[in-house]
Amino acid sequence: MTSLPYVHGYSPRESARLGAQAQTLAELLHQDERYPAGARVLEAGCGTGAQTVILARNNPAAHFVSVDVSRASLERARMAVEREGLTNVRFEEADVFRLPFPDAAFDAVFVCFVLEHLAEPLRALAELKRILRPGGTITAIEGDHGSAYFHPDSELARKAIQCLVDLQKRDGGDSLIGRRLYPLLDRAGFAEIKVAPRVVYADPSRPEMVDGFTRNTFTAMVEGVEEKALRAGMMDPISWRQSIADLHQTAGPEGVFNYTFFKARAVKLGTNK
Amino acid sequence: MTSLPYVHGYSPRESARLGAQAQTLAELLHQDERYPAGARVLEAGCGTGAQTVILARNNPAAHFVSVDVSRASLERARMAVEREGLTNVRFEEADVFRLPFPDAAFDAVFVCFVLEHLAEPLRALAELKRILRPGGTITAIEGDHGSAYFHPDSELARKAIQCLVDLQKRDGGDSLIGRRLYPLLDRAGFAEIKVAPRVVYADPSRPEMVDGFTRNTFTAMVEGVEEKALRAGMMDPISWRQSIADLHQTAGPEGVFNYTFFKARAVKLGTNK
């Protein structure tokens, strides 16, 4: 009961979407992620390496171990890192619930867009805490689809987003997890928890955000679940098409789009356990 | 057709709420509002002076003219300003749709939590543009109740917030106006429009925000429309009571609350018209 279906799938288009997302959001989410020389950092759930490349490039003197349950994703992550000429990442196939590392093996843990896909995020956090040394830090980044609102407002667009939320829930995940990072880390026993909302705001004065986020990240993500949503009878094809047209309007000449990511940092206190 | 009912009413409790709100949000919203010495600034819709005091204190060498349609509110604003020993504010009873000032009389306009209450915000912006000199700036600040989300999530709490949105709509206002500031200013013909979301994030590590915003600003605001919402049959009394209890949970030991204000700045270009 560890590897849940990944709501977004593994298509080439999804991979392109993840690339666009990582680039647009790199500065917003990862720019301030800095590790000292020699730090041993575990990236849990690296996927196809969209974040791995940014982290490894920004922290050339830190040592990354990036793990994922999907061998295919790992292979692509490995290629992405090689393409960039980065040599400070080691990849391993591993399950975040049962990591093949001894207690206290890492100075830091980085987990981004992963907890949202887990039925038991608390159990994952407990395992991540185990492999972290006392005094070590965890960085957890998640979105929250309930934070999305836009102009022109559209009931159909909101309904399509709800399909995504419901599909992810059906798969055992929680796409509204961003707002819960504080209580989750608190329950997992982490200390000094600091959560910072990282807001994406896109209006016509910010064309790169409109393109990189509204159109090619968020709307593309909703479009990506069309087949699943229709097959599940969540919406009819005509309403679906209209909902996507409405989402594209929010990237139009009068459109505005808002979305919030949450970046949390916390510390493992005390002795190991 | 100018003076619409004010959804929040004019009770002493509402006045206390506005005070708490202004203090909590002063830094977030107004800290960067700076006017050069000698600048003539119109504050449109000053209400009881919650923002007036902050502006006048932060800009002692600027000259403020603060107007409102409510004589009672103006009287309280005047007292608040006097209590602070501020002498750079002149108050006038005036309608934002028909300001008693010649064209191009001001260097800057400040309008905060006002457009949301107007049935014709565009017409108000046109009038504000008229009294602004070419090259002058407008600052518009608004909230957006659709930006509110929280943990624990609660359908009833969301329903109570929707009552507030619907009541304000019934009065001709739009409590979702924050996301529309860019297109509104654009349509009104302003240039160099820059909109910045100002996010309130309150979790247990920020007790002053939990208290000042979640509890005493937002929840108090929803509680304030109980009578209207029940009288309008929007919710039954038992559900209402539960919805308020649920909102208070978001200020509890596991609670998280998110809300976004929008601060826009824009310029009037060209010659006067």
Description:
The structure is a homodimer of 273-residue chains. With 273 residues, the first copy, chain A, is of the alpha/beta class. Chain A has helices at 12-30, 50-58, 71-83, 121-130, 155-170, 181-187, 207-223, 226-231, 237-249; strands spanning 40-44, 63-68, 89-93, 106-112, 132-142, 149-151, 191-202, 256-267. The first copy, chain A, is built from 9 helices and 8 strands. In chain A, helix 2 (50-58) links the parallel strand 1 and strand 2. In chain A, helix 1 packs parallel to helix 2, helix 1 crosses helix 7 (207-223) and helix 5 crosses helix 9 (237-249). At the A-B interface, strand 6, helix 6, strand 7 and strand 8 of A face strand 6, helix 6, strand 7 and strand 8 of B.
SSE order and pairing:
The structure is a homodimer of 273-residue chains.
Chain A: H1 12-30, E1 40-44, H2 50-58, E2 63-68, H3 71-83, E3 89-93, E4 106-112, H4 121-130, E5 132-142, E6 149-151, H5 155-170, H6 181-187, E7 191-202, H7 207-223, H8 226-231, H9 237-249, E8 256-267
Parallel strand pairs in A: 1-2, 1-4, 2-3, 4-5
Antiparallel strand pairs in A: 5-8, 6-8, 7-8
Helix pairs in contact in A: 1-2, 1-7, 5-9
